[in-house]
Amino acid sequence: MGMELYLDLLSQPCRAVYIFAKKNNIPFEFKHVELFKGQHCREEFGKINILKKVPALKDGVFTLAESTAILLYLSRKYNTPDHWYPSDTQKRARVDEYLSWHHTNIRGNAGKTLWIKVLIPLFTGQTLPPEKLQEVMDELAISLKQFEEKFLQDKPFIVGSEISLADLMAIVELMQPIGVGCDIFEDRPKLSEWRNQVEEAVGKELFQEAHELILNIKELSNIQIDPQLKEHLAPVLRKMMK
C-alpha cells in the first residue's frame, strides 16, 4: 500500500506538505479532507489522526500528524536535496530557529485575516468592524518587520542562497492574507523579492496550483457549512468577535 497524505489545500500547512511532496517527486495518494464539510471531525478520519486535524500522513500502518513532523519525515525517508533541511549543523539550526518562531508570530497573525474577512462572516453571517482587521494587520506588521530583519536580512532565502523548509512554511502562511485582499507584499520590496524567489524555486505552476483555492476563497461564500462544525467552532468564533 502506498503513502497517503490527508490534506485540504485551504490549510496553510497542508499546502506546505503538498508543495514539498510534489516538488520532490514523492509518490503519494491525495486524500482530500474537506474542512468546511467537517470531514476532519468524523470517526473515520479520527482513525488516521486522533487529533482530527490536517495534514496527516499514512504510510502503511504508520501514521503521523503535524506538518513539521511530516515534512521532516518525508525529507529523511526520500533523501530530498540537502538544502531543504541542511546537514550542516548551523544551517539546520537556522531552519529550526525559524520554525520555532513561526507558530506564534507569522502563523499566529497571518491566518487571522482569513477568519476576520471571510470565515467569521461565512459561519455567523456577521461582519466584524474594520478596527478588528486593522488590529491584526498591525500585529502582523510587527512580525513581518522581525521576519525581514532577523531571518531574511540581506539573503535571498532564510538560510542563505537556497530554499529550505523554513521558507516553505513561511510563504504558505503569508499567502493567506493575499487570498482575502490584504497585500502584505506591497511597499515591502525585500519581502516581495523573497516571495518571487520562493515561487521560482518551487516552480510557479506548482505554486499557483497549491494556492488556487485560497486565491479564490471569496467564491466559497455560498458553500454549505457542516452544522456540527459550526457548533464546534462557536466558542472560538465568539472569542474572536469580542
TrEMBL record:
List the GO biological process terms: glutathione metabolic process
Query: Which Gene3D superfamilies does the protein's record reference?
Result: 1.20.1050.10, Glutaredoxin (3.40.30.10)
EC number(s) per entry: 2.5.1.18
Q: Which reaction does it catalyse?
A: RX + glutathione = an S-substituted glutathione + a halide anion + H(+)
User: Where does the GST N-terminal domain start and stop, copy by copy?
Assistant: 1-82
| InterPro entries reported for this sequence | Glutathione-S-Trfase_C-like, Glutathione-S-Trfase_C_sf, Glutathione_S-Trfase, Glutathione_S-Trfase_N, GST_C, GST_C_Theta, GST_N_Theta, GST_Theta
Cellular component terms per the entry's GO annotation: cytoplasm
Q: What is this protein called?
A: glutathione transferase
Q: Does the keyword Isomerase apply?
A: no
Q: Name one GO molecular function term.
A: glutathione transferase activity
Q: How does it assemble?
A: Homodimer.
